Amino acid sequence: MLGVEGLAGPLGRAALLVGLIGAFFGLIAAVMGTRNEDEKVLRLVPRFATLSCVSAIAAFAAMEWAMITRDFSLAYIQKVGSKSTPALYNFTAVWSALEGSILLWLLVLTCLTSGIVFKYRTRITDPMVGWAVATMFFVGIFFFILTLGPANPFAVGAPGVLDGPGPNPLLQNHILVVFHPPILYLGYVGMTVPFAFAIGALITGRVGEGWLVETRRWALFSWGFLTLGIILGSWWSYEVLGWSGVWAWDPVENASFIPWLTGTAYIHSVLVQERRGMLRVWNLSLLVSTFSLTILGTFLTRSGVLNSVHAFSESSIGPYLLSFFAIIVVVSVALIGWRGQKLHSPGTIDSPLSREGAFLANNVVFSVFAFVVLLGTVFPLIIEAFQNRQLVVGEPFFDKLAVPAGLTLLFLMCVAPVLPWRKASGELLADRLFWPAWGGIGALAFSVGLGATGFAPLLTFALGGFAGGAALRQLVLATRRQGLRGFVGRANGGMVVHIGVILIAVALAASNSYTHSQELLLKQGVVATFDGHTFELMGFKEESDARSTVVAAMVRVDGGKTYTPAITKYKSIGTNIGTPSVKSSFVKDIYLTIEPPVKVSSKTAKIKVFIKPMVMWLWIGGGLMGVGTVLSAFPGRRRKPTDATSALVPSETSA
After folding, report:
1. Residue 159, preceding peptide bond in cis (omega within 30° of 0)
2. Is 469 exposed, middle or buried (0-12, 13-18, 19+ CB in 10 A)?
3. Least CB-packed of 363, 496, 593, 651 within 10 Å?
């Protein structure tokens, strides 16, 4: 007879099975009800969506309960659980490995499906809504099958196990592990919603601009969560890994960055379709690509095919994810081909010197950037599969790509905000670009005055000042007309996002180009100097418990506060993990790590010091991007009907 501590496994498996049944019958009800225009059947869809969602919540709660109670009867708890893991990291251990991460994905997906059904419950009879919901149920069925099959978190483990190693040590020493994965998943999984409505539009043939109205905010918020997740991941890398960087072009980092690039392209080009009725095929392709790339990224992250600090161990989930990826791509391309005649755009680009021309150029750069990053990420896998040899595509390859792409995008951010729709005259451009250009000149002069050198960073600072001036000009004009409400709306919220991107670009250029580092052998009581700063070893601090042993060096910086870079040895694993200590300011960070081995008795420590300018502005820029995303989601000043929207048929307008 099972005790209370052994109930999590059976309850979790039962909940997943019930959720699968709910998703399956929800799919049947949505498809049959929509095809037969049977309102009675369609009214069952919300019940099945709720059943599926509640079941996923119950399964996730059972997994958390098993983790909290250390139910080592489950194989997953044996893998990532430990009696000595602190409560916070024991809670987050649920998504620290393959099975739990898929369960988290399923939780977010079923909650989104239920939310969509609730939002459109009065319009469930609309065929486009019906097919969109059916698509989301189909995706949900796939992930339920994963959790009941190759990624089952409730599989029974070996008998007699009384303790485990705990989660990866890198995932139990920083608070960001609580926020980074769930927020990233909200972005990843959230892209299912606009994809589902795109499929609904293709199936129903309503491929004008009406379906964009239904997906704009969903796509925007998903993109915003994906952006925030990537920023938090960079912050985690900076605070935890001890290498002083924020982005290493790690394959799993790339797996989240690639759909971000295509999603960003969509966020921009969808404005052209709404305004001018153009780029219909392109926008549908971008949505399909973005969702497909989230599935491909899940394969890269969770199949074990890549060696990465972020990747999980090898599993049998890979063929399932690749097959699902192939189904998504084949079906989507077939639907786009089927509706090719209806996807003909009524508008054309009148001049490259127009806002739509700038958006098209923007899309080309983002798409090429995404393709090359994808190629560099999967190329080693292709070589290994066909030639049975290992190849590494490292940072130099990606850096050579990223610098020109980033500079091109900054240039487009200088020009695009001041361009009108359709066509711009030279006189108009000269007038609108006057003050932004002076902003670029001022930024360049200020940088040179501070001693900045190097063509690429100086060009980044100049273009950053230029683009910042263009964005600020737009915001100033908007606030003059509308007051503080001028910040609200897609155009002006987008300018706030642009300012955030500019800050990140400038901060990356500064921190990557002008970082100084030195390894110092500090002796207790002796002051050392480096790059105009003083460092003094004040002693050591040692802590030990059943989980780990921590040795931290207490280093006084510039005669003020003491910082404690440390090394932690996890006893159950026998792994040493370094933890940096950072003195942050708006101007620069002083980043300290302690180099092993640490001999406390010698009263000396090898401390590596990194002086990194402007790192804090990366996080400020990320915060501004989040604020701008929220502002963009709310309606701004109403415009007159555009060429595209005035041409919609009634069914599309009401959709």
Report:
1. no
2. buried
3. 651
Residue 314 has a pLDDT of: 53
Per-residue confidence (pLDDT) for residue 45, from 0 to 100: 94
Return the DSSP state at 574.
T
In the structure encoding, which two tokens stand for residue 383, read together? Answer: 């070589």
Q: Can you give the pLDDT at residue 5?
A: 58
Low-confidence ranges of the chain (pLDDT < 50): 1-3, 309-313, 638-655
Q: Of 177, 93, 150, whose CA–CA distance to 299 is shortest? A: 150
Residue 393's pLDDT is 75
Q: What's the length of the chain?
A: 655
Output the pLDDT for position 274: 77
Give the pLDDT score at 306. 58
Other Cβ atoms closer than 10 A to 442: 14
64-74 core/surface letters (b: 16 or more CB in 10 A; e: else): bbbbeebbbbb
Distance set, CA 144 to CA 92, 109, 127, 520 (Å): 21, 10, 25, 53
Parallel, antiparallel, or unpaired: how do β-strands 581-584 and 588-595 relate? Answer: antiparallel
Domain coordinates in residue numbering, the chain: 1-167, 516-613
Q: What are 613's strand-pairing partners? A: 588
- Its pTM stands at 0.90
Tokens (6 digits) for 258:
């690639």
Residue 170: the pLDDT is 84
* Coil, helix or strand at residue 394: coil
> Which residues 6+ apart lie within 8 Å of 276 measured at CB?
347, 356, 421, 642, 643, 644
3-state secondary structure of 516: strand
Asked if residue 566 lies in contact with residue 550, where contact means CB atoms within 8 angstroms, the answer is yes
Report whether 361 contacts 432 (CB < 8 A). Answer: no
